[in-house]
Design brief:
GO terms for molecular function: 3'-nucleotidase activity; 5'-nucleotidase activity; exopolyphosphatase activity; metal ion binding; nucleotide binding. The protein is of the alpha/beta class. It has six helices and eleven strands. It has a single domain, classed as Survival protein SurE-like phosphatase/nucleotidase (Stationary-phase Survival Protein Sure Homolog, Chain: A, 3-Layer(aba) Sandwich).
Length: 261
């Protein structure tokens, strides 16, 4: 198996090393793991692409490249430059430092990389490690992802729905903020919504008097509805959420047609 991996935390991120090890286990001794990751951190860029300026790419080592762009840029670089003559069988994005559950999905560059792969017709999985009191002080805060990642991916490859539709399914996996031995299992979930918390801004004055705004994240310890991703993670489970890039609110189509057509 030939696997392309990327992330949004950057080419030197510890979570990328975790994903390299997971991908090598999945690919097997006769497989190949190719890395194309952002040269600098790209957290929060979503599905952004560098449409109005070029992206520099550099080979750092065999099968290892850094691109000055977003995770989606890196997937495009991997598919149409680095691996243009031998496309990958699977694209993995992560392992993100922090969860990409609930509303975080909409901002996540990790999700953006997997989404771009799916739009290009390839099987894709995004992986993220929730942070919390149960794992932030561990010597390896990615322990849950490291020890359970390959198993979850294998189950998805064997049992997941890998359709060939225009907006094909990709998968969002979040590992709970716990030591690996305390993970309670896996739950298939919906994307949740954290009520009462959201992104915001915090203004600061620079020494020269200019005003700057820092983007602030909301609380991550608020559980979502039962059956959804963050609820499962905070309850000790790995969440697996099937996703599509189609943003149509299909449940409102009939009502709107009746009113407008």
């Amino acid at each position: 198996m030939r696997i392309l991996i990327t992330n949004d935390d950057g080419i030197n991120a510890p979570g990328l090393k975790v994903l390299e090890a997971i991908a090598a286990e999945i690919a097997g001794p006769t497989g190949e793991v190719w890395t194309v990751a952002p040269a600098f951190e790209q957290s929060g860029v979503g599905h952004c692409i560098s449409y109005v300026h070029p992206t520099m790419i550099a080979e750092l080592a065999p099968r290892r490249f850094a691109a000055e762009g977003s995770p989606a840029d890196c997937v495009l670089a991997g598919l149409f430059d680095v691996l243009r003559d031998s496309p990958p069988d699977l694209v993995l994005s992560g392992v993100n430092r922090g969860n990409n559950a609930a509303e975080n999905v909409l901002y996540s560059g990790t999700i953006g990389g997997a989404m771009e792969a799916a739009l290009q017709g390839l099987p894709a999985i995004a992986l993220s490690q929730y942070y919390g009191p149960g794992n932030v002080t561990l010597s390896d805060s990615f322990e849950a992802a490291s020890q359970h990642g390959a198993g979850v991916i294998r189950k998805l490859l064997d049992n997941g729905h890998w359709d060939q539709t225009d907006y094909r399914v990709f998968y969002n996996v979040n590992f709970p903020p716990l030591p690996a031995a305390e993970v309670r299992g896996t739950r298939v979930t919906t994307q949740g919504y954290r009520r009462g918390t959201h992104f915001s801004v915090e203004p600061h004055l620079a020494p020269n008097g200019r005003r700057f705004l820092w983007i602030k994240g909301g609380r991550q310890d608020i559980a979502t509805e039962p059956g959804s991703d963050a609820h499962a993670n905070l309850d000790g489970y790995i969440s697996v959420t099937p996703m599509r890039a189609d943003l149509t609110a299909h449940d409102r189509l009939d009502t709107l047609r009746a009113a407008l057509e």
